[in-house]
Amino acid sequence: NVWTLATADEIDSSNTQLMTRAAQGAPHGLVLAAERQTAGRGRLGRRWQMPLGAGLTFSALWRFERGLSGLAGLSLVVGVAMVRALRSFDVPVQLKWPNDVLLDGRKLAGILIELSGDALGPAAVVIGIGLNMASPGEVDQPVANLADAGYQVGRNALLAELLNQLADVLATFDRDGFAAFHAEWTACAAFLQQPVLLRFSHGEPVEGVALGVDDHGALQVATAAGPRVFHVGEVSLRAA
Ligand code: BTN
């Protein structure tokens, strides 16, 4: 087993903590699971808050053997690992680009990936996952949770399966890149061939039809002005 699990009752953010420890040389495979975060962070600078006991909240440190050219692809394959784990408990989830996990079209879980250290050397990433087990956290869109949707899944069992799937997927991604997951990601994706709205941290939103992802995991969109490609980190997608 590649993982070493540490737990905390209350911390600011498991991602923040693990980023600090990564810079101090923490080992590959360190996982930090938190009962409660006082300053949980979401993508695009948003906050991630969950009532005590309502969520599964953890971060994992993965040191790649090579430099990471495709952070976009990494973001998507972590979503694939989550789909595999949740479907093994018969929870029929889908993915919303880049990596929100949806249940019945509503957000069940989010993923925050941060790069630690030098982007040119062997890459170390912190992969943070927040999943609504019971009453949902406060997020920017309609949310789902396992309990209210009628799924009885143990939190420890789910964490163990998520870590199993993550180890498998990350090892394959390190070796073969996103191409190895292109078909599986596409089969899990919500919103393909549908009208979508892309919102940026800065600038005007863009409307179009989501076509799919390229071999780097970037989203291909048909817009009135022609085809465009969008990269992770700048943008969030919703149904138009
Ligand atoms: C998002 O959908 O915006 C991503 C949410 C990621 C939340 C998790 S909870 C564990 C880890 N620690 C954090 O501060 N954030 C991530």
TrEMBL record:
Biotin binds at S13, S14, N15, Q37, R41, G42, R43, K107. It is an enzyme of class 6 (ligase). Its EC number is 6.3.4.15. It catalyses: biotin + L-lysyl-[protein] + ATP = N(6)-biotinyl-L-lysyl-[protein] + AMP + diphosphate + H(+). Residues 1-174 form the BPL/LPL catalytic domain. Keywords: ATP-binding, Biotin, DNA-binding, Ligase, Nucleotide-binding, Repressor, Transcription, Transcription regulation. Belongs to the biotin--protein ligase family. This is Bifunctional ligase/repressor BirA. The gene is birA. The chain holds residues 81 to 320 of 321 of the full protein.
